[in-house]
Amino acid sequence: MNLFQKYGGSSFWSEFLNIYMQEFICSESLSHYCNEVEIDHIRRMAEGLMEVTFSSERKYSKDVLKGIHKNLRITNADFDEWIKIYRLVLKEIGISDEDSDTIVINIETYRNAIVSKS
C-alpha cells in the first residue's frame, strides 16, 4: 500500500492540506507568497502533486516545478521553513516518523527546482 492510501487517501490528505495551508499563511516568513495567488488553487495543485508522488513511483517533473517557481524568488531559508511546517503538520495529523522522513526526503529532491534565490 502506498503512503497516499495508507493514511486514508484524498480525504485525509485534503485535511492535511487544510491544516498545512493555515500554518503556511500564518508563517511570518512565508505568508508573503500568498498575497498574489489563490490559496485554493495552490491547495488543489498540492493535493494532486501529493497523490502522484505518494501513490506511485513516478516523479513530478523538475523542469515544470522550476518553471512554476522561478519568479517567486524562493530562498533556501524559505524552503527550510516550508519543510519545518510540513513536518510539524505531518506529526500533528499522525504520520509516523518513518513515513514523515520518507515524505520529506522525497520533497528535498525538488529543492533545486523550487529554490531560485540564495
TrEMBL record:
Top-level taxonomy: Eukaryota, Sar, Alveolata, Ciliophora, Postciliodesmatophora
Organism: Stentor coeruleus
One function term, GO molecular function aspect: oxygen binding
InterPro entries registered for this protein in UniProt: Globin-like_sf, Globin/Proto
Source organism, top-level taxon: Eukaryota
Transmembrane segments: none
Entry protein name: Globin
